[in-house]
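Hey, quick one: can you model this chain's 3D structure?
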Amino acid sequence: MIVPALFLAALVISVLIYPAAIGWLVRARMGQQIREEGPQAHHAKAGTPTAGGLVFLLVGLVFFLIADRSKAGAFVLLALIFGGALGFWDDFAKFSGGRNLGLKARHKIVIQLATGALLGLLALAWNLTAQLVPFDGRKALGGWIIVVSALAVAAGSNAFNLTDGSDGLAAGTGAISFGGLALIALLEHDPGAGLLPAVLAGALVGFLFYNVFPARIFMGDTGSLALGTAMVAAAITTGFLWYLPLLALVFVIETVSVILQVASFKMTGKRIIRMSPLHNHFIVAGWKETPLALWFWAGSLVAAALAVAIARPGV
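Sure thing. Here's the predicted structure for all 315 residues.
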């Protein structure tokens, strides 16, 4: 029962830590910069403390050292740190520049691909390449894990980042995805692979106490890039990488909405939705952020349940 216990412990500790983290970020003047082209309703959020994702890295590290120390846990923790380091660099660039621009997209994608390839090499060295293949059991990817991991990390970290644009949305959806991966590890009779996902799920639920509307803190790119990278790593360690697009369907839809919007505008000069990512379309249409988050969480729950049911892990 250590996995549920770690989830609850991470939740409680996060709830206790965040008031101090908010105060520290305020004193450090790490306030959110709002993009001018974003929804008008978001302009009131300017100055809200961001980079709250630093707590995810701290909680993940502490719980790994105290309760985990497994190869699977180390793999997820390294992914969390790599993604968090890039995210903090990006957040710091925004603060120092005074505008919500950060690093150039092409620079970030190169670093994300390199990070994913490095994690793929590590997965190969640590024999973490076996994945559940839809309708064909568990198969080892071998050297292909390097390419697949590189693409998955670039896609996953950016998807989490795009979804993190409305109070509580990415945190709640991410908690469900990490919770799903922890459950899959239990069903696969490999609880060690579920420890860090359970910790991150608990930390995200604790973060929600301060991130639901009206948010008192944002995770920033420090959190979203860390969690997106860690989510891919956790999918690798649980053997659930091929099912991750279904498990994390909300993140996929948010990303696809941006791709289609950009493609449509470039080819026809017309937008297919009012504003991308998809959650901004609903905000511009007048939706309140709390019901919007609840609907997205519900969709994430359904997708996670379908992924587990179709994959039938442990059978």
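One thing worth noting: The longest helix spans residues 71-97.
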